[in-house]
Structures are given as C-alpha cells and as structure tokens.
Write a structure and sequence with these properties.
Elements (H helix, E strand, L loop, with lengths): L1 E4 L3 E7 L2 E7 L1 H11 L4 E8 L2 H12 L7 E4 L5 E5 L6 E5 L22 E5 L9 H11 L4 E5 L4 H4 L2 H14 L2 E5 H8 L4 H11 L3 E5 L5 E4 L4 E4 L12 H15 L5 H5 L3 H18 L10 H18 L1
Parallel strand pairs: 1-4, 1-8, 2-6, 4-5, 8-9, 9-10, 10-11
Antiparallel strand pairs: 2-3, 6-7, 11-12, 12-13
Helix pairs in contact: 1-8, 8-10
C-alpha cells in the first residue's frame, strides 16, 4: 500500500465569472489517481465534516482509497480558486482556520506495516501546520519505507523563498524519490540546469530525481543512469492535476515492477528508468484531456497506450 499525505480541498474553477467546485488538492488527486490505477492507497490528512468535506470523503471512498488515517474535523474545507483563462492554471488559496491545518504533530501516527511508500507534497510542505507534523511522520518512517516528495510549488502561499527552499531540502534528505516540474525548479533555483539540481539531490541522498516539463516530456536521473521521454501529443482540456497524475503513475509503475523498495530503487536499470517515466508521461498527457483533476483508470490508460502505439506504427 502507498500512503499519500497532505491536503484535500475544493478546486473552484473560474470560468466566465462562474465558480464550479471540484474535489482536489495535490495529495488528494495523487491518492485518487493511484486508486484508479489499481494501486492500494490510503490518504493521510484532515477532512472537514461540512458539505464539501463530505464530498471529499465520499470521493475517496467511491474510488477505493483507504480512509483509516483521515482525520475528520469541524473546521471548514479549504478552497483553491483555479483560473485557467490564460492557459496554465493559476491558483488563489483560502487555507486559514480550515481542515487543511488539522493534522498537527500531536497526530503523528504509526503507519501500518502494509505501507511500502509515503508520498508527500504541495501545500502541506509550505505552511505550518501541517508541514512540521508531516516532516515528523516522514522522519519516523524514512528508514523503513520509500518516501517520495513533490513540492508542486505554489508561490502565492509560500511567501519568502529561502525558508521554503531550506525546508524542501530537508525533505530531499529524507526522500528516495524527488519529483518536481521545470517551473518548480526555476522558482526554487533560478537558472540552474535540471541535471545539476538532480546531481545535488542525489548527493543529498535521493535515489531517483525526476523533472517534468509539460508537453516536452520528462527527464530522470539516478546515481548510475539518466533517461528522457517525450509526452504524447493530446488535445488539452486543462493542465489541472497533470503533475499529480504523473507522480501517481510513476509510483504505480514502480509498485507493479517490484521497484518500490529502498534497495530496488537504487538498483534500477536504464531501461526500467525510461519505461517508468514514459508511462508516467502518458498518464499525465491523458489527464490533460480531461477537465479538472479527473484521473484516468487503468483501462483508460491501456486504451490510450494502444492508440499511441498505433499512431507510432502508422508513422514508421
């Protein structure tokens, strides 16, 4: 089982002056995407008992996400207003005094021995609570399970950059897998080259570093190998949830291949590395054909990959 820790919120999509609510939040989307890819997954975080919180909780349940570590609280559901009018999604967040802040250090728990990996990212790395509680949780399990970190940087809520960079690099020291976008990397490290940043992260202890670059695909590095993949061309509905789908698909590939293990990750070969990020890029591209974070199922992905293979064959 994979545990995904962080925020569950409502994405309110702004279109022509009208807000349409969708269940969302980076970790929430990642958990749903894993479940739809038929990977056993549990969600760790606070969820309100209000109407939106019930929607979030029911969405987790309907998709088969284990909710044993969900903390239900009376505080209202956090909100993200999403504006896609300019292409890429722009976000405004309403987090103060919400269920997002419900997971505190007093709640740091003992994860079941069933859990092979812990995924943490997005807003939950940026503000406290819950950042310190999740860092304490990751520190507790770092010796026994794979940790994946995805900063999914949201400058609107971070404030001063350097304190966030310092915190993020503490996470990198705990992590086995670090996944970030080219935009994340540019905000964190200005004009640094991805391969140089990846080298720094590997030196800090990571086993695998992946940098995604939207329609241009993704790159990955280990201490022994590097790989590059393109992204399948699709008609884009919006890009909401694409990074979450990529991260979930990467974990799903590693889990199915028996690589979701601290030692196995460090022994991954070049072909497996390329196959893992190619699969993740395909799932992220398919996500982009759907409005909001509506992750594809395994059957959807299989059909999509078959179609892509036929396109490639037709071009050969």
């Amino acid at each position: 089982m994979i545990a995904v820790a962080g925020e569950a919120l409502i994405d309110a999509h702004l279109a022509e002056g009208v807000l349409r609510p969708f269940a969302g939040g980076g970790p929430f989307n990642t958990a749903i995407a894993l479940a739809r890819l038929d990977v056993p997954v549990c969600f760790v975080g606070g969820v309100s008992t209000d109407q939106f919180g019930r929607l979030l909780n029911e969405t987790l349940a309907d998709n088969g996400v284990d909710r044993r570590y969900v903390k239900r609280v009376a505080a209202p559901t956090p909100l993200a207003v999403v504006d896609t009018s300019a292409g890429d999604a722009a976000y405004s967040f309403y987090l103060r005094d919400t269920a997002y802040q419900a997971f505190e250090e007093v709640d740091v728990l003992q994860l079941s021995s069933e859990v092979a990996a812990l995924h943490v990212g997005t807003l939950a790395l940026a503000t406290d609570p819950p950042a310190s509680a999740l860092e304490a949780l990751a520190s507790r399990v770092a010796d026994s399970m794979v940790i994946m970190v995805d900063p999914n940087v949201r400058p609107a809520i971070i404030g001063t950059r350097q304190p966030f960079v310092d915190r993020f690099e503490r996470w990198v020291r705990l992590a086995d897998v670090v996944k970030l976008s080219a935009a994340d990397l540019a905000w964190l490290y200005d004009d640094a080259r991805p391969e140089d940043v990846a080298g720094d992260f590997l030196a800090l202890g990571a086993a695998l570093v992946v940098v995604t670059d939207g329609a241009d695909g993704a790159s990955a590095w280990t201490n022994e190998w590097s790989a590059r993949t393109t992204a399948p061309a699709v008609t884009v509905a919006d890009t909401v949830g694409a990074g979450d789908a990529f991260g979930a698909a990467l974990l799903a590939w590693l889990w199915r291949a028996g690589r979701l293990d601290k030692r196995a990750l460090r022994e991954i070969d070049a072909g497996s590395l390329e196959a893992a990020i190619a699969f993740a890029a395909a799932v992220a591209s398919l996500q982009c054909t759907r409005p909001s974070a509506s992750a594809p199922t395994s059957a959807d992905v299989d059909r999509f990959l078959e179609q892509q293979a036929l396109v490639v064959k037709a071009h050969d």
